[in-house]
């Protein structure tokens, strides 16, 4: 698959960085849009690193990336050049995944630029077609408060849900959610440490999730001595997300995957992403797309990848309005339509 884009030529003349910010129900989301320009065309990607200071430090440092990245390249040559360029002039982040997120912003911008300069879409290069994308709406429901879900379903009765259950959810929350028959994914957040969304391994929570929602996909359980007996009987519904940054990571999971949440930014490079998608397709692993609260070009790019590789999955790639503090009166409905005037990488 990667061979289809590796030899794409691109010309880079300048690099621009732009800060984006938007309030979500839980926090202020900040990202940096990477714009590569050349031959009168612009390609865009998005650095979805979560710490605001990392975005501000990058812009304050004002690195001369134009000099480092300008030139005539193939896409694979440009990717190799990124190995040599310091994308963290203010110092490396403590979290290794942030390195991948920033790298992905530049890789995505380069792929977008190369395709636009060629007048093509990613589907053209892969000899594939775009299909409408099924999407789910995600939410955390702090302390089990279902008000946001109730509002959503009153305005969009057919909406499907991806939720992040926590140990402090009361039984009434589980009862209400079961009655909706709208829950498709439950993310146990068992792979996170030192973040705002950590959820410690909890056999009682895991039991309520697996037994209470027998048809739902369950993401990222922490498989420990205490939880193994709960998780393993449901291995065919276990999906992996946060630990996955490469194909090696997929193979290293304690439960072999039947499901995989593909978040492109976690992979860092297009080559790593395509390698993993190809492997999953060949081995019958059901994929679905995931996002990182993208604010700009990144949102359309995860939607296009879903349209090419896993259109029917419970894709967490909903339009950005679902991340606003207040839900729209008339929310967009699934599936996402294929744009009629599409070119480059990303809707």
TrEMBL record:
Organism of origin: Halobacterium jilantaiense
- Supply the name of the protein: L-alanine-DL-glutamate epimerase
Q: Which InterPro entries match?
A: Enolase-like_C_sf, Enolase-like_N
Which top-rank group of organisms is this from? Answer: Archaea
Region feature (Disordered)? 324-347
């Amino acid at each position: 698959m990667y061979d289809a884009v590796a030899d794409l030529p691109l010309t880079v003349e300048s690099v621009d960085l732009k800060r984006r910010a938007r309030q979500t129900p839980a926090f202020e989301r900040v990202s940096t849009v990477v714009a590569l320009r050349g031959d009168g065309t612009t390609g865009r990607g998005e650095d979805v690193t979560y710490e605001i200071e990392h975005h501000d430090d990058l812009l304050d440092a004002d690195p001369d990336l134009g000099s480092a990245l300008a030139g005539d390249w193939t896409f694979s040559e440009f990717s190799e050049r990124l190995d040599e360029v310091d994308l963290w002039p203010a110092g490396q982040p403590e979290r290794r995944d942030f390195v991948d997120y920033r790298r992905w912003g530049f890789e995505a911008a380069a792929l977008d630029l190369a395709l636009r300069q060629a007048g093509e879409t990613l589907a053209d290069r892969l000899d594939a077609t775009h299909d409408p994308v099924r999407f789910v709406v995600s939410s955390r429901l702090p302390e089990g408060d279902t008000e946001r879900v109730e509002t959503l379903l009153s305005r969009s009765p057919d909406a499907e849900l991806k939720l992040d259950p926590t140990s402090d959810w009361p039984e009434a929350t589980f009862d209400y959610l079961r009655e909706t028959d709208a829950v498709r994914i439950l993310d146990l957040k068992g792979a996170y440490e030192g973040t705002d969304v950590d959820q410690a391994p909890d056999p009682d929570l895991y039991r309520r999730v697996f037994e209470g929602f027998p048809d739902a996909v369950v993401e990222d359980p922490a498989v420990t001595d205490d939880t193994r007996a709960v998780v393993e009987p449901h291995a065919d519904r276990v999906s992996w997300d946060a630990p996955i940054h490469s194909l090696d990571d997929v193979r290293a999971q304690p439960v072999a995957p039947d499901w995989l949440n593909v978040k492109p930014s976690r992979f860092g490079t297009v080559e790593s992403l395509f390698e993993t998608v190809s492997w999953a397709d060949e081995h019958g692993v059901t994929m679905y797309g995931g996002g990182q609260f993208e604010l700009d070009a990144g949102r359309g790019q995860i939607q296009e990848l879903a349209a090419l590789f896993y259109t029917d999955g419970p894709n967490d790639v909903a339009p950005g309005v679902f991340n606003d503090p207040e839900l729209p009166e008339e929310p967009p409905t699934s599936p996402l339509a294929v744009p009629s005037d599409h070119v480059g990488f990303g809707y």
